[in-house]
Amino acid sequence: MDKNGKTAHRDSPMLSISAIVALTLTLAAGCGKKEPPVDTRLYGYWESIDRGASNAGHGLEILPGDSVVRVMGRMADRPYFIEGDRLTVDFRPPDNDTIPLDTLNSKTFTFSFEADTLVRTFKGQTGWYARLDDYMADSQSILGTWHMVRTTDAVLEPSVERFSPDGILHVRLFSRAQPGKYVVTADTLSLNFADQPPRRFTYRIAGDTLHLTLPDGEEGAYLSAGEHNWYAGQSP
To answer: Parallel, antiparallel, or unpaired: how do β-strands 106-114 and 125-131 relate?
Structure first.
């Protein structure tokens, strides 16, 4: 009893020990080993630097979470030059640009403008292209990004094209997009697309380039477009 005649209550030693043990276990669990966070530099759109047959390439859009989209298509980056209303595109391989430029390794178009529409003609076939950006929009300039909206050529595929000031024409023709899933563990990136076996890569990011290496040593390189590629909204 205390001095007032009331019974004094003391905490049970066993309860105190149990509480301490529980707190210790909770703290230990909170300090357990965790997987390192995903490198957020992976997020965004990447376009393959390597080109296969017919300038085949693809893009990878890696989204926060576990979703990835692969955009398939043909990707060409060719020199061009303009003389008056004539546009010539150089199709010579980069390592053979010393050979004479002729009709077998180039195409020469005539072009004009109808308001903000680019009209381009080759061998009697005409294509109409709408401007996709504001670059040089107020001038009669071919510089900038264009999307084919109509053509008289039955076999010509719709494309998105960008004429850069440094004399390079970037052309993208798309076939399909494949949704998939990805998993990142340490320096390993696993990609899984429907009807295909999963592929595991060792990944490395150097500046704006993503390097993916297969277990057999084969490596591919991708250039970052950040969150948006220049033809965003026009691919599948």
So the answer is: unpaired
